[in-house]
TrEMBL record:
Domain Aminoacyl-tRNA synthetase class Ia: 142-764
Biased composition range(s): Basic and acidic residues: 50-79
Source organism: Pseudocercospora fijiensis (strain CIRAD86) (Black leaf streak disease fungus)
Protein name as catalogued: valine--tRNA ligase
Residue ranges of the region described as Disordered: 1-117
Domain (Methionyl/Valyl/Leucyl/Isoleucyl-tRNA synthetase anticodon-binding): residue spans on this chain: 809-952
SUPFAM superfamilies the record matches: Anticodon-binding domain of a subclass of class I aminoacyl-tRNA synthetases (SSF47323), Nucleotidylyl transferase (SSF52374), ValRS/IleRS/LeuRS editing domain (SSF50677)
Amino acid sequence: MALNHASHNPTGEKTGPATGQPPPPSAESKNAILEAANSDIQGQSAPGKDGGDANAPKKEKTEKELAKERAKAEKEAKFLAKQQKQKQQQAASAPKQQKEKKQQTKLPPYVEKTPKGDKKILEPLDDEYHKAYNPSVVESAWYDWWEKEGFHKPEFKSDGNVKDAGYFVISIPPPNVTGALHIGHALATSLQDTMIRWNRMQGKTVLFVPGCDHAGLSTQSVVENMLYRRRNGTTRHDLGREKFVETVWEWKEEYHAKINKGMKRLGGSMDWTREAFTMDENLSAAVRQTFIQLHDEGLIYRANRLVNWCTALNTSLSNLEVDQKELEGSTKLDVPGYDKKIEFGTIWNFKYPIDGTKEFIEVATTRPETMLGDTGVAVHPTDERYKHLIGKKVKHPFVDRLLPIFGADDVEKDFGTGAVKITPAHDFNDFKRGKANNLEFINILNDDGTMNENAGPFAGHKRFDVRYEIIDELTKLGLYVGKDNNKMQIPLCSKSKDVIEPVLKPQWWMYMKPLAEPAIEAVRKGEIKIMPALVERDYFRWMENIDDWCISRQLWWGHQIPAYYVKLKEGGAYDSDPQYWVCGETEEDARKKAEAKFPGKEFELERDPDCLDTWFSSGLWPFSTLGWPNKTHDFEKLYPTSVLETGWDIIFFWVARMIMFGIKMTGKVPFTEVYNHALIRDSEGRKMSKSLGNVIDPIDIMDGVSLETLTEKLKAGNLAPKEIERATKWQQKAFAGGIDECGADALRFTLINYATGGGDINFDVKVMRGYRNFCNKIYQATKYVLGNLPADFKPKEKGGKTGKESLPERWILHKLTIAARDANNALQAREFSKATQAIYGYWYSELCDVYIENSKAIIRDGTTEEKQSAIDTLYTALEGGLTMIHPMMPFLTEELWQRLPRRPNDNTPSIVRAAYPQYDQTLDDPKSERDYELVLGCSKGLRSLLSEHGIKEGGIGLVQTLNPEATKTAEEYLASIKALAKGTAELKIHSTEIPDGYSVYPVSSAANIFLQIPNPDPAAEIKKQKPKLEESAKAVQEQQKLISELASGVSEEIKAKADARLKDLFSEQKAYEDSLARFEKMKL
């Protein structure tokens, strides 16, 4: 990103180009500026101008006085030219000297002097650590003070109600305690905190609830891997449940603290007194009450059904936790627990012998090992090949079992052999056929993926070893036919990447249709808005086809299910009948229910050892974090919450379930808006993964990190040696020089700017450096303003107009209010990137590069009245800019805002509680905008032409105005245009035909600038201008296409801007055409 590094000079040095400081304006230039101010009745840039009578008689200078001034100006110009030449020569060797000096004077790490929790001690801006922007210096101490002072707590009125402006609440999507934060968390926190801070500055009662998720399956898996790698193969079973859970709690405490530290480091303005954890006392009570209520209502039930079983993690999974891997044909894949790759994407054919005959029936399978669980063969009842076999049985070649052949209308006669082997206990489709035809359900798998006793001679063997053993044995028996490629999907565990096995197990399930219907209706009626619209369509599609949810997990870490099996003295075995389950908050409660259900019976209670799916407790998050099931003040006043900001990838896992639970348990929607941000990928577009080494810790970006440290972090994790090697190679390529320190503000602003509402984000840390420089731009601009405020400066009570502002002042105040309007509108519409662009444009292109630069001469050389007006406007423009960007950059803005003098009667203690800039119609001045931008455009055009033609002095220019307003403006500010284009000796407004020998610079549809070329070469000018014309014509076509493709619902403002741009381009094209025609004529 190209940045004006010239504005980054240390305190005490004037801002200027890299080649040296610019000379002060000559008397001629100064007189021209003041002359322009004199033409403005409300100007404050000329001596004696106080808004008085513009028609009062002026004192005329004598010829002698004028001659004296001209001689002085010529003498000064010669001296300054000589001085500038010397500085340029000195600057040629400056980079090397500066580099050496920088290496020699490297400062030791900054040590903050402020006691923890106290308001920051502001050191002078001219000390070594404050000369230039330094994130670690700027961002120190503030957060502890904010937290101690309670600035992040919600403010209620004296009667306990929310403030008149309303309330705004976000419950943070809780990070998993599996490890440290990653860049995705930084994106989410940046967006959420921007909304939180912006709404707080709007005067609302605001709450940002922090917290973490226990993440049952993920955390247990991480800790188990840690134990295995660091403790010589130790498993959770070696420790036992109680000791293992203690170990996980220790892990949780360590990483929960790291996560909280990272959130604070990012500047998230959470109220930490309301922090939640999904397994804390209140949230656990919410989980128990919800489970018991839904079980008592019949929405939660126990059933022996097929589940997705992960043999690596030894637990069941919901469909959402299973990834489907597409295969085009035979493919060998890595499977956890196997040294060799296993073949998938293949269909194997073999024959079953018909019992009592010499016939065979050929079947096919993509999983040969499952034939050990076959209990039937299905054919179509009208298939002539097999009609005579219906009712007969086939003999299993490896176990003592006869399999009936039966007719089924859903068998496709023309697919494969037309005969289908049925494995009811290990296939979802076969499960239904098995139920319909009363087949036997035989489980052949142990929980760890080995074969059980039902597998006959293969018992104890690993499932995919058996795949190949079965083929070998079938071949020996002459029953193997062959194999072929088969396009298919392989179900993989999203956590372990193990191949999922459908296994018959008794589990807890939840009926979802009765919960889904009101959740669908709430979104359709607009009670909840889901953005972007594409995600809303996905929500409806999934909810309208929702399946029942398997909510139990075979885990030790998590919410143990509050269900107890009633084992009657004369009853059956444990879990043999779902009617014998009772639920209770405690065992005593469960016992009372059992006694009521089985009066007079002797029994024992055995609690279900399983835990609930993590998403069950997460689904209660928006209201359980506010105190539910208790009727707390927070729950009564701040529920429903306002916005859920999350990634689109968990819309089904989490968002849909929160909506269903919220409506069911509280009678209200849990939030009124869902904003789904894009997913962050690495700079090459790959999904971030620890095994790829492309997961970026936001702390490393904020603080900076060396390549060596990044590599050490990889080695300290749970990655296998091969994964470490692969990840290290990528790191060496992506972070060859490590990662520069960028700070929280630059990171936040970058991520917010990425949030366009479009596709996934390809994140590149190099982009961060540009926004770190932008932070420096703000820092140096504020330093300049502070350095130019008089010691006794007191800002006006309000920042509006006085009626005496000069044109540049009216222009910047107009830009301020328009930026405030655009930023507010964009944030309200959740168009975060638009908000950053509006604020960035105001700071960079308008306040820093134009107004501050152009105000320097007046502040330095103007009268007292002129200086006062310029400084008042500068203060207003700066204060507005700081508060406007605060939601995105909290630390830098607090550091600088605290250094500004306060307006009278403003006792705001922190920018956190300051008011956000609002659109002020009295500052909206499009006429001044057009006028000043015409002045700026014309001066820019002159400078460009002077540079292009190498004219350093004596330039003769013409301003061609193209409408009456432009003519009037150019006449009024002609001297200013000339003064802003050094090297221009003569400048006139020209309304007739342009003379030959002038080069053109199209400014806009309002004006063109022309410069007389000494000894013009028509052929050379034609050669230079033809590409410009071609480029202009191309731009016209592109703009016309853009306008034709504008959506019908686009705003009138956007249409007007597009049309105005086209008008400018047409004018530019015509200017080049006319200019080329003149040079062609000269050539002839």
